[in-house]
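so ive been stuck on this for like two days lol. basically i have the seq below and the ligand is pyridoxal-5'-phosphate, smiles is in there too. i just want the complex predicted, nothing fancy, no docking runs or whatever. if the output looks off dont worry ill sanity check it later, just need somthing to start from for the group meeting slides
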Amino acid sequence: MSLALPKVTGLRCVLCSAVYAHGEVEYTCPRCGIEGILDVELDHDFIARTFGKSALAANRDLSLWRYRALLPVPDDAALLPPPRLQVGFTPVVESPALAKELGLGAFFVKDDGRNPTASFKDRASSVIVLRAKWLGRNEITCSSTGNAASSLAGFAAEAGMKAFIFVPASAPEAKVAQLLVYGAKVFLVEGPYEDAFRVCQAAVEEFGWYNRNCAINPYLVEGKKTCGLEIAEQMQGSLPDVVTVALGDGCTTAGIWKGLVEMKTHGVIDRLPRLLAVQAEGAAPLAKTFARGDERIDPVEATTLADSINVGSPRNGIKALRAVRASGGAIVTARDEAILAWIPRLARATGVFAEPTGVAALAGLEAALEKGLVARGERVLHVATGNGLKDTRGAMRSVGPPTRIPPNLDAVRRTLEKR
Ligand SMILES: *Cc1c(COP(=O)(O)O)cnc(C)c1O
Ligand SMILES: [Zn+2]
């Protein structure tokens, strides 16, 4: 199979703006080194020959592969079949009750915890595993706070690839269980995410594995942008004013924005929502940068129970900052207690049970409403990025303990009377 990809015009460095040809560089800018994150640039005139509003309307593939024309793999599914796991095109649930409580014009939640390994990260993993396969690579690695790892492990298993995974030893048990069940080679690194990243990076240099780190690999944003593509397509008649999402490394925020912009380019939508990206108060380097108005990112020692955004030195920060600023949106912070309180609140209003990070942006939304960054009456879509079963310890902290009773009806009666 040819390794040419005419839809990609080049890869542009976010720091020095140098442009590389597709295939010339796979990861970061050789001039700027590891900080030189690249952005994949597409030939939208070329893509428009097969992709657009009417092509989408006729497309019956209800997965992210309906956007294959925009993804960094060849279009021919017969030559390069996608993974068998259903990923993307996750449902959007409306909650008039929450809209009313928050004083919003409408409130929607996009339930991305319904992806095969139960998080948003499946968007990136499915695309990158197919790309790795196309490039003829059979060994793949990543470091992650947990979800990217369990996601990669799942898609590598489906593809018959060997996955080498580096996660902080503090990762929630359910995420580690996923890794082991999928048969990945797991390294629990004694230290924070930054240490897991560093060791993984050194291992890539030593062993030559394909690198699925969003901190390095520009093609992950391409997978993550499918969430933005879907929001645009699913909401085209009733586009929200604001999209809320949790912000850790920045790849997710940048991806959602890229997808929305591409759908405007292709005429599926005619305006763009603002992004409200939310960091946990204990891991908020990008909120500080945003408030200052520049692009300098000072690493912090991160501590939040929203483990998926427990990132002290975000590596896609510049991409995320540019996305939020281009959208006219904002980056705000949320306290851990406020985040926890939203787990039952979202679940009871919509039936969507999310992990702490999956509701973090809702705590931020409340703060943004108070500050006037989001106006009363606006329409908001929240991306619930991870399933609640990923972190039952966090969930249990958000609710009281269950009632224990001896096995008889009297005890049931007494308990009900006490209420
Ligand atoms: C990774 C992750 C995020 C944040 O994505 P970044 O690219 O790190 O900003 C949000 N929610 C969940 C559930 C995640 O796993
Ligand atoms: Zn550069």
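DSSP finds 15 helices and 13 strands in the chain. The longest helix spans residues 219-234.
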